[in-house]
Amino acid sequence: MIQYASRAQLKEKAREQMAGHYGNAILLSICRSLIVFSLTFAVSMTFTMILTVRTLMGGSAETSLAEYLLLTACTTLLSIFTGVFQTGITLFYLNTACSRPAVTANLFYGFKYLFKKSLGISAVLILLNTACTLPFDICYFLLRSGKGFDAITMAILCIVLMCIYIPLSLGLSQAYYLLLDFPQYSAMELMKLSFRIMKGHKWELFCLQMSFLPLGFLCLLSFGIGTLWLVPYMNMTQTLYFLDLMQNEHRH
């Protein structure tokens, strides 16, 4: 009989594995955040400057839907590119979980060795997220412009999109881990494999992720400072979930 580790067991082991490693994990998160923030800020400032120049030349100060969609396209492309960092982050936590050397330089692993496959996985995940959030964003944009969408319509649309996004994202959740285990596979093969091994496990992973919500609320009370420790804890727990999943997959 296959026996999977419980949420409590995974979390307890995650705390043990992260002992003495929080410093590097926090530094890793800060480095990634600074890079992503800098790039995003540059895109936003460029867009803001264009609007400012147009306003000074006597044009409208309001953002049109076309301009909003253009900005969304730019930020989506940027998110796909920076999503490659996730390969390095995944490597860092796998190394830590397996008692191998884990360093901040792991962050750039995906850019050095597995760029195309990392970019392919990132593109699918980010485009999935965009496809499921963009309709809501457009409706919200039109609502602010007084184009007829109401709060009830927005709420229904949000629920429908979440019901589509959550199962798909959970199915793809192991792709980066699998990339490091099976670097010879294509990005499409890795995502198909992720869906296969997650069959029958999406609900338990969803519950595992939701179990961090109380700690997330506590982090809000600390003005977000607590997330510096919460994010590594969550990442390690999900890494151990993957290792447990694969161990039982091989037994099966």
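Next protein, fold it too.
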Amino acid sequence: DKTAVETALKNRPAIKENRLYIPEMGVNVPINEIVNGNDAQALFNGAAHRAAQSGNPKDGGNFVLAAHRFSLGITPGNVVQKSPFFHIDRLKVKDLVYVDWLGERYTYRINSLSSVAPTQVSIEARTALPQLTFYSCGLGGERDNRIVAMAKPVE
């Protein structure tokens, strides 16, 4: 929930792993690298760093993350754990998003929300200016449109 994420942000120990925090969605999950093109494993427990060549918080460009919107699990708690972007529809322009990356915390402000076709891979393209792009499938599954949030760094 939002309060738990805000508490985690305030009471953080030394940053030891790459994490994504989105208070408005109750998200506090690890950011996982895709290994050997297998994004299923990266998506299993958190957010997947898609299109690594497009950017990251430290080096700039388009830092692209994806996570499941709804994924079945063995228990209700397991479903929640495997579906971190379930509440992506709660986001609003100007909401804050936080990323811990390589020992540093980065803050972003959402500047646009949209829905795109699953074939619109341009959302993962490198950008000249730093930005965070994160998305998930609609509730209709992988063939459904993608709900996309784009955010700019807060100086």
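About the second fold: The chain is about 15% helix and 35% strand.
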